[in-house]
Amino acid sequence: MSKTIILFALFLSIVLNVQISFVVAESKVYIVYLGEKEHDNPESVTESHHQMLSSLLGSKKAVLDSIVYSYRHGFSGFAAKLTESQAQQISELPEVVQVIPNTLYEMTTTRTWDYLGISPGNSDSLLEKARMGYQVIVGVLDTGVWPESEMFNDKGYGPIPSRWKGGCESGDLFNGSIHCNRKLIGAKYFVDANNAEFGVLNKTENPDYLSPRDINGHGTHVASTIGGSFLPNVSYLGLGRGTARGGAPGVHIAVYKVCWLQRGCSGADVLKAMDEAIHDGCSFISRNRFEGADLCWSISCAGNAGPTAQTISNVAPWVLTVAATTQDRSFPTAITLGNNITILGQAIFAGPELGFVGLTYPEFSGDCEKLSSNPNSAMQGKVVLCFTASRPSNAAITTVRNAGGLGVIIARNPTHLLTPTRNFPYVSVDFELGTDILYYIRSTRSPIVNIQASKTLFGQSVSTKVATFSSRGPNSVSPAILKPDIAAPGVNILAAISPNSSINDGGFAMMSGTSMATPVVSGVVVLLKSLHPDWSPSAIKSAIVTTAWRTDPSGEPIFADGSSRKLADPFDYGGGLINPEKAVKPGLIYDMTTDDYVMYMCSVDYSDISISRVLGKTTVCPNPKPSVLDLNLPSITIPNLRGEVTLTRTVTNVGPVNSVYKVVIDPPTGVNVAVTPTELVFDSTTTKRSFTVRVSTTHKVNTGYYFGSLTWTDNLHNVAIPVSVRTQILQRYYDEN
Hints:
Layout: H1 3-15, E1 28-35, H2 42-57, H3 60-66, E2 67-71, E3 76-82, H4 84-91, E4 98-101, H5 112-115, H6 126-129, E5 137-142, H7 176-179, E6 184-189, H8 192-198, H9 218-227, E7 231-236, E8 239-244, E9 252-257, E10 259-260, E11 264-265, H10 267-280, E12 284-287, E13 298-301, E14 319-325, E15 329-330, E16 332-337, E17 342-346, E18 357-360, E19 382-387, H11 395-402, E20 407-411, E21 426-429, H12 431-442, E22 448-451, E23 457-458, E24 465-466, E25 486-489, E26 493-496, E27 508-511, H13 514-531, H14 537-546, E28 559-560, E29 566-567, H15 570-573, H16 580-583, E30 588-589, H17 594-603, H18 608-615, E31 636-641, E32 644-653, E33 659-666, E34 671-676, E35 679-682, E36 688-697, E37 705-713, E38 718-727, H19 729-736
């Protein structure tokens, strides 16, 4: 059996993973999967399907009335309208592998929130209990906003919170008295530091709006992902159709434009914007495109420098740093070769179907980044196959288009980073499938290919992975601080965008990056803050980290994409994949105050003068200085274990008043972890309990990091934190000798 057929078999049996029961006599569509084709001629395959149905239905007319599709290229099967008893009969035939009821999916960005379990309509859901973020104000620091987007309409909104002190500034094509409303309650722009660095913004050389208006759409995308209003029947190039909305559709949004097209984001402008946001009354701040070390708690992206280790950005402990994952949605695109083999690639290709055209592999240079070195005649009128080990770029599209080519099949790992194209297919396959296509090209005199328009697929068959681009730990600045903290979907996120964007389709676009994952977490934080207005930032962070999924929502393992695929670990996704509903009731939290952060700064050798200036009051660090390992984080990271170390954590009960928690330890390989006490008892007078963790190693040599976990459980709540340990025995030996 070919690898392609195996893929299709797994695809069908897992994608449509439904339990089959045959009870009712009315007709519905079923998919009949027959496995590998017995005929190379597609017409013969179809005829065999007709014959099978005819034996059941009795006449050619009945067959033609019943059959919906004949699957005849990559595998053999068909879809037909059958009663349940007929489906039962056909499932019992020896040549039938599986019969699967067709499932109608209503997609509702359009998929992200349902994937994470935040759906409207259930009175017990986080979304409904939090009143969709009512009265919470989120400040978004980015490239501005396109206020006309319907995702910022204020239908159903009440008055602006009385604590709001901000406003809307006017400027280029932005009228503050018109373009703001009860949802978009603030809009400001900050460019002075940027001008000071690069000279006054020349809008001819650097097209942009000297106002809060967004020219490239990034900020619009982020803001609408956090809190966009419900908007039905939204798609992108016909894909991902559903109801678009933000994570907290009832939130108030204040936009602070600090990033400028072709000029970036000045740190000074950013700090000024944060300062304004705090003053204006923002509940919290979402900042996506830059890093810094400020004491204002915020939500920030991990960066897009992965999968290389130690590339993580935004590493301060008071920042909630977000990694990016895929979600359970993909865009399969059928590539049918002239030998009738159909391969599924991934693309955002709206069509039309290409039809069978020539297929070529430029033998002079099949490197996607070097296609321009090939003569145009080799690509004209054909689809071009190329290979690349680097991140995708538009160079291949430009080169092939300019040469008169009709499309590109790019072979690389992984395949989830997609470039949207109109009327020009740009399809990604992995190296293995790319090699299969190359073998076909080299084995026939006139290779041809047909590329169909992309489809939308979601469900359990689409595995969740940490995206290749998502920056990885460990933390190179403060190795004992785990980063990232959490992961959220950040690949092919559909949200509003500026009409000026080159990838705009009706005011929407799909974008990928950790700055797409960050607003997903921001949306969740809005809901949690609305439900728990008295929770501190660190309490919210703890609730998110300790309740995260270590698998995907369906229970399947989460992998980390990169040069080689591996199971994800805390340096890929922190505590795991955000689990919003569980974060509502975490049971216990690892809380912190400003004093804890001061102790952290003391532990990493900030001077008394520096800390005093930050706080605005005289501060003296204790002697001996505190250990960074004792910072009350919802994680334990020991970068240089030499013998034995003991650290302390404190948890606060936010669950049932009378609770008893017992510890469960999953130690890293070769590491002993002992917790004292092993049981924590809470009542009306005891809401906080401290415990010590003694960690020692059995390794005799230096190691890389090993990972485990420490969980407190009362059989209702499982409060889990990741444990990451690296042994450095030899360094101790050298120090002692």
